[in-house]
Amino acid sequence: MSPNSIYGYAGKILWLDLTKREAKKLELSREMARDYIGARGFGIKILWDNMKKGTDPLSPESLLVVSVGPLAGTSSQSASRWFVVFKSPLTGTYFRSVGGGYFGAEMKFAGYDAIVVSGRAEKPTYVWIKDDNVEFRDATRAWGLTTNMTTELLKEETDKSARLITIGPAGERLVKISSIQSDDQRSAGRGGGGAVLGAKNLKAIVVKGSKMPKLFDEERFREAVKEEIQTYQKSPALEGFRALGTAGVVDLFYSLGHNPSFNFMQREFNGIDNYKADVFPRYIIKRGGCYGCMISCWQFLKTTDGPYAGFFWDKPEYEALWSFGSNLGNANLEAVMQANMLCDKYGLDVISVGSAIGMAYELYEKGILTRKETDGMELRWGDPEPALEIIRKIALREGIGRILGEGTKRAAEIIGRGAEKYAIQIKGLELPAYDPRAAKAHGLSLVTSNIGASHNMGWNYFEITGVPKDGKQVDPLSIEGKGELTKYVQDETAMYEVAGKCTFPADFVMFTRENLAKLLYYATGIEEFKNPDYLMLVGERVYNLERAFNVREGFGREHDTIPERFVKEPFPRTPAKGQVFELDKLLDDYYKARGWDLKTGKPTKAKLESLGLNDVAKEINAE
Amino acid sequence: MSPNSIYGYAGKILWLDLTKREAKKLELSREMARDYIGARGFGIKILWDNMKKGTDPLSPESLLVVSVGPLAGTSSQSASRWFVVFKSPLTGTYFRSVGGGYFGAEMKFAGYDAIVVSGRAEKPTYVWIKDDNVEFRDATRAWGLTTNMTTELLKEETDKSARLITIGPAGERLVKISSIQSDDQRSAGRGGGGAVLGAKNLKAIVVKGSKMPKLFDEERFREAVKEEIQTYQKSPALEGFRALGTAGVVDLFYSLGHNPSFNFMQREFNGIDNYKADVFPRYIIKRGGCYGCMISCWQFLKTTDGPYAGFFWDKPEYEALWSFGSNLGNANLEAVMQANMLCDKYGLDVISVGSAIGMAYELYEKGILTRKETDGMELRWGDPEPALEIIRKIALREGIGRILGEGTKRAAEIIGRGAEKYAIQIKGLELPAYDPRAAKAHGLSLVTSNIGASHNMGWNYFEITGVPKDGKQVDPLSIEGKGELTKYVQDETAMYEVAGKCTFPADFVMFTRENLAKLLYYATGIEEFKNPDYLMLVGERVYNLERAFNVREGFGREHDTIPERFVKEPFPRTPAKGQVFELDKLLDDYYKARGWDLKTGKPTKAKLESLGLNDVAKEINAE
């Protein structure tokens, strides 16, 4: 190893300046590794240090960080996620989006813990990284192609076994709800990362690496992985996850008050049986999984008849099964499969797209949108055909798609006439498939999340799957203690994500903090990592730094809010009948638990300093 | 080499019995090699010897032969085509369809000159051939998939570098105008070969080979190839072909009276400028070519906007640019690209599909079809949208597609009410993009072709591209000497095709017969091949044997006919204004040239015996 290198890490941050077509390799400092661990931690640290307040996310000055954790490319399980961290053109906040598959490990093999994308290329460009060699290449040929066709073309131009992340036609057109997709069709879907790359004229990052990460204590590391695998194997969720991934819970979650129907109006949805777990197996023709993950939760579904016949594609995850399913009152699973595929191909976020379409359907029902504004389409609950056409229109910025592609918040403002009420979003990010009225801490997590209503940045498994907290069952409808509970899950998610871990196993309690400490210590040799409490502290540190980024951008308590539907319209069906979301009480409780100012929602000086963020406290004038 | 092997040949015929799941390897006899050379020659010889009169093409008893020539897999140019020979469910005649790409060479490398498919598998099956090893494998997973998705799946299941031919959803559903597609999207499009395989429950043949063919005199063979390449290089057509392939001639051929507009009504077509050669380059993002062909006439076109945005695909060839273009009065090139892609994916013949749709458009204009029968669609000339939907319906046998997928002849019979008049077909095979009224020998070739109105089995380059015959220009509108000229081109095509050669270079006179003789002799050492006249004799022999097959099936002069449009409706525009097709005169002239009976159209005993087909003469009671 070189004198500066650190076990477990690749040791380099690759800084791409698209304007100058320059690639710099910066040494990763031991301090940064210790304080932020990696992945989501590196993302916010680089963003905080290098991106000025008020930067337009679509300007050359904005940055987008792709980062992995110190366990990426190792045999540690579900640990090679690639994180994308940027300021979102959709929300104006800090943002982190994350994808799986093989890109993360490949990036590590090529020798990089993070890739920072800056500047703006004059013309469509892609970056081809083969170990130390970095080329800025003309992407004119690939520009305009769907993500899968881009993959085909760019692998031909580089190396068939290379891995890549790319944007689709939507990102090129700066659609605010555009995604970044990997060659294996994993999505960093949320927040409009596709548009950030599109604005930089960067079509794709293609990577091929040959260096295995060096570990501090290989033998003990292997032992820790063995222990990790045993924990997975003991989990009652393992087999279900393997069989169907997140698609296995659609009707169950509906019965819990989630998988919210009809744009969160939560009317009874008669089609729910078409999404039962036993419906899927007949479609499955192939399985797969991410690098280094024994769960292997990918299934590929085949459609053989009707309008969508002839393809196989990754199954829609729970969120897409909702956003194009019960959210639209649509009982046609095959149409959902089609919608999901179109979003992947065009490079669109399935949650935000489905939500925007759900809003349009409700606005149409209420007469706020008419056929004049829907390009002649009738938007009737249960009819998926217009939804499929709208997906294309969103991707290509045509007609009504031009408006809906701005996200529900901005789209509703453009439409006016009271449409805002039906935009189901927080800080501009569309809600995922959980109803805050039916799970209060989960709702609180959506309200306060640093990126807006995230589907996986603080997923409250105590409320959703009924895992006991300190031996006691948590009542999802109660508001008691929910501030602390929310903070706990948010920080814990952050902890796992600085290590580059996947949230699915975390959500189903397949990780233990003690095991994570072993993995990180034996991988890196960094003494602090031995202590599980230190890891949780880093989680909290990262969470607060993200919050500070938002504070610097002008966000405060007034933005930790929720659409009035959840506050004013009682939940209409079992099991949460009559429930509303008690916003203010929950928020007070949360800020207290966080050690943040109750009035402004700003982290206090004391809190930040306790996390070693003294400079940060100064910069945001924390008191 | 084994004692039985013959230079140049793989030496084996692989006989697949799907019913018994048995693969037999038969030795290729020296006699068969000498008398039929290969490819198209082997196809008809095997069919004639082994397929009983009156066999239902979709029964287990029917055979389908995939064959290559002795030059396949060598460095001889454009010589690795794979031929598919069978009795057509569309026409009831002998049929040969042919594709390019890499499958033909791979089949030779695996050790087979021909693969005979017989029987019927109990359930969806594919055959995986790795050199000597042949496996019958379950194709349940691939069943229902488009051809491109099948390729993806089956390469994963076998070998990423394997080559394959497959059917799509159309072939599975026994659509009469379904194709067979290769992994590199070359089509054996015509005659319903897809349905023949579909009826056998055979989804695909996947091949991987490792044996280079052994040649008789490698050094002299290389010299002959060098000479061949020089002929290519001297051809004025080479660069144009390389640049655009068959897409370069669309507007030129229109000006010659071809690329017939509006289902051969030949009204002025204002959109023709959208198909000019200079329109294509802006779409091209990739090029390619078949194994061992210096022309490399493949281009891949990209669409970046509008309803079909985001893909690249092989360019439509001349015929598809017609069948979905001027044939439908459609000026939207991108819609043609889409239609072409859909046909490739579903496994459909672009000519027959476009022609069936053209007929439907004309029937709709004439009020013979109404919206009740078109599933509510308005079929208006120039509007490609219904055409795209009909393609899907044909593939999946839905609504009007169920009827049109039978081919124009049968579809018109089903529709009745005088529709037959608008079915532009000969012996049930839809006409390609040439108007018999504007090129009489070419028309005569369509009328008399052994497979029906073929686009490439006797392409009269003297008439179409103006190559002089024996130093004299041929007037396409004259009928004089056209019997002899037609025979000449048909036999010549057969000669090149028994060698496995591509018809494109043949049509543009890039081959010479003398060079072919050298190639075949130095490859195989078979003395007879030294003599160019012998090769032409084999061409004629094969042509007559194909004819005999049809005679045995009950075909005669009455089937060598043409739709009344060409006989009764004078050609309306330049350069063939006022012309009709003089069927009877031309036919008499042709039979005379052929040495066939004028009344029955049957080859005479004398003719057959002069070709060494004494047994054949006996079997069809030739006089």
TrEMBL record, chains A, B:
Essential cofactor(s): [4Fe-4S] cluster; tungstopterin
SMART domains registered for this protein in UniProt: AFOR_N
Source domain of life: Archaea
Annotated ranges, domain Aldehyde ferredoxin oxidoreductase N-terminal: 9-211
UniProt xrefs under SUPFAM superfamilies: Aldehyde ferredoxin oxidoreductase, C-terminal domains, Aldehyde ferredoxin oxidoreductase, N-terminal domain
Keywords, in A-Z order: 4Fe-4S, Iron, Iron-sulfur, Metal-binding, Oxidoreductase
Family statement: Belongs to the AOR/FOR family.
Name under which the protein is recorded: Aldehyde:ferredoxin oxidoreductase
Species annotation: Fervidicoccus fontis (strain DSM 19380 / JCM 18336 / VKM B-2539 / Kam940)
Classification of source organism: Archaea, Thermoproteota, Thermoprotei, Fervidicoccales, Fervidicoccaceae
